[in-house]
Request: fold
Amino acid sequence: MIFRKFLRTIHYKAVFAGGLLFILILLLVRTDDSSSSHSLLAAPFLGEGKCAVRFAALHERALVALASFPGSGNMWIRHLIEKASGIYTGNCRPDKELFKEGFVGEIEHWRKGKTIAAKTHGYEEGHIAEFNSAVLLVRNPYKALIAERSRKHAGLHSYPAESSFSGPEWEKHVAWNAIYWERIMSNWLQSSIPILVIYYEDIRQDPIVELEKMTDFLNVTLSDRLDCVKKDPEGRYHRPGDEDLGYDPFTPEMHADIDQRIGRVNAVLQSKGMKPVYTA
Reply:
């Protein structure tokens, strides 16, 4: 009896000590400017060895935007960039659900320079000016509109009902987000900061070639971690075929509006020597 009580006492003390240690680590991770925490922040948090992913040291990285319209595959691209670079991506609007999904970079403020790029769907001139450069992810807006509707109605890992793509709410979704898509594309393309344009459809076709462009732009070497990418090219965030409904949910009026917006964005792209938006 005495021996069992002794063992229980040791167990409770160990649990209590472990809890205090976990809280201490969290406090160190959240420390903004303490140089003593840099070694902790630079250590791997996910994975081991060559394929581990870490935070950079404070202000180590330039402020690079990963800009896109919602539904353009930014979560998949973040996964690929983290695999290719070994450094977490961040978010201009941290999301606890994305943190739960494995995007550890959500816990750090993007302005600290500890992440390799920061996701954003913003397009205001003042917001764009906060960055040193940007990767602009471009996707066929028809496909992106469907993908974003799917995400809102079914989450990250499911598919929505057919009724999600008809009726007043669908019409409102298309009308508002067609404007939103054009503003994101036009404002980033016409900004004064260096921009790398990456087409989602090209990544689907050959992710390694497009990753080479992105890693060169981000000043990291893909060859050092190419095996890490090849081991897990899809991640848990890429939902192939989410835009293939088997029918066209867009009315003639929707097509006319979206096509005009595509035409204006294409004019900007082509004025900069870039190819037009994919529409097939």
Notes: The chain has a mean pLDDT of 83.
